[in-house]
Amino acid sequence: MQIICQKIMQTKSKLLDANIILRLLTEDSSKQAEAVASLIRDARPNELELPDVVLAEIVWVLQSYYSLKKPAIITSLRALIETKGIKLNRELLGLIISIYQDNNISYIDAYLAARSKLENKLLYTFDQRLEQITGSKGKTP
Amino acid sequence: MQLSTITQKGQVTIPIQIRKFLQVTADSQVVFIKVANKVELHKAVDIVQLKGSIDTTKKYSDKEADKSVADYLSKDHADKIKTS
């Protein structure tokens, strides 16, 4: 039983906090950045999970705390998609990035537009720009 | 231009000139991306390669970062109220 539990623990994905990725990118502590680098380098495919809401936090901190512009944020997001040890919704994030890149909208608006497009769902909003981007799926209640 | 044949298993040989061009060797990761009605192939750039890529003198603190995010979100909300 114990062996089975250990096996499950080993194969289960592990969650990542936003500051793990942020401290790798900023390398404000070389010790911490190196620890993150080896964690990610040694991870099995999809072992380290980045939930959607943590991705949003990473974008918000890069934008508001480090004053990064969109192209630099997009470079980091693409690299996250292309990191095999990291588990995230690659199809969704890929679509978010292309919408975020092509339109003057926030990350969360791009996230909603991408969900609406990918899942073919109506999106209720009072934001006219987001309604336009979402096309026929955008609705004002 | 290079032509390759797909095997029964769906594998395809990337011609040596293309591997050199992309700077990929055995065990490299590559990415396939749909672009219009074609697929583009490139060498994966993983997040570890971006270590230290943000040029900043700011020290990270969870509290300061949370405050910036909160300020950003309230400003974003205020702007949206004005326009919608």
TrEMBL record, chain B:
InterPro entries assigned: SpoVT-AbrB_sf
Name this protein carries in UniProt: SpoVT-AbrB domain-containing protein
Organism whose genome encodes this protein: Candidatus Roizmanbacteria bacterium CG22_combo_CG10-13_8_21_14_all_38_20
